[in-house]
Amino acid sequence: MKLLWTLVITLLVFPLAMKASTNNLIPGASDASAFAESWDANTDELIKERLGQLSLPFEAKYNENVKTYIKRYVVLGLRESESMLGRSSLYFPIFEHYLNLYNLPMELKYLPMVESTLRPGVKSHAGAAGLWQMVPASANYFGLTINGTVDERLDPIKSTEAAVKMLSMLYDQFGDWPLVMAAYNCGPGRVKKAIRYAGCDDYWEISKYLPKETQRYVPAYIAAAYLVNYYDEHDMAPKYPAYDLQDTRTFVTHTTLRFSDIAKATNISWDMLKKLNPGYLGNTIPASNKGHYVVLPAYAAESFRTFLNKKVKASGDAIALGEGTLKTSYTTVAGDNIETLALLFGCSVEDIMKWNHLKNKDLAVNQSLILYLKRHSTIVKP
Length: 382
Fold this sequence. Notes:
By secondary structure, the chain is mainly alpha-helical. The chain has 2 domains: 2-234, Lysozyme (Orthogonal Bundle), CATH 1.10.530; 243-374, Membrane-bound Lytic Murein Transglycosylase D, Chain A (Roll). The chain has helices at 2-13, 22-25, 32-35, 41-53, 64-76, 78-101, 111-116, 136-141, 156-174, 177-186, 188-198, 203-206, 212-230, 243-246, 259-266, 270-276, 301-314, 338-345, 349-355, and strands at residues 248-253, 257-258, 284-285, 292-297, 325-331, 368-374. It has a two-stranded antiparallel ribbon. Strands 2-3 form a two-stranded antiparallel ribbon. A two-stranded antiparallel sheet has the order 5-6. Helix 6 (78-101) packs across helix 9 (156-174). It is globular.
């Protein structure tokens, strides 16, 4: 009965997950005259050969749709593509962290390039929003909060975990990544109907029975993968965001905070705070039992920690430590988990949670952790 109910809920929720037109999210043709290049049979053969060398979770076919999107990335929309490649430095580590956590192919990190051109504030006419373009029904199903204060679809960290959970569930249903991508775009119900019409489960065969947008979705993904791996072959260079947007630290807070107070305590501009924390819709980060993420430039980590500790001490939640304790810090990287860190630093999971006022074991990329270690302790290599 539980399995049947899960299937019913899934069929009800996912058909609502229609995204904005893929054409609207792929670089346009405004720079066509300036960046046009010859494209002949030799070019086709070279690109086909390069696609064959890509490490993707399925065979990358080269057809007219794929060719069209590669052209849009490396010729017609070259300047926007360079900016998008630069933004990948902000978000790929987050994608890789959760794909690793849920044992999904790393190459799925290219999918948000198709969805949003790696702009967390993008919203579609269909009501989808964020890097992964999730609609409210899907967001709620996977535990994201949407209200007048917070829209976690716009939070790069929380939305990524929700999207990865969704992709994992879809793979359990279809067992084929092109079909999973199609279902992510238009809903599993439509994909199953297309499979019945076509009499097979080959994405390229059933594609003609899918919505036009979904027919272009997998080719656009292949083109995005090509762009990331071969942009230099087209004399392109990523345009990276400001350094303070790239070198960041992430904190978890359970108490109410105001951006105006954070800005005053850390000397970070309001504009910078909002760019790094797009999921908050106003001045307030609300209290939360499960915790909210706050992302700041690395240079402000210590001043924010001091500010946050005052808030914690005011609540009476102080940490008592014995003599001979060495205070240090650690910044997490993609793939870190709290159990491995406890082993590495010779402490317990409960210690790390207590020292950092964490209420669960979840870690994010670039999360700033404080550790209190015994002097002369030996760090164990995991």
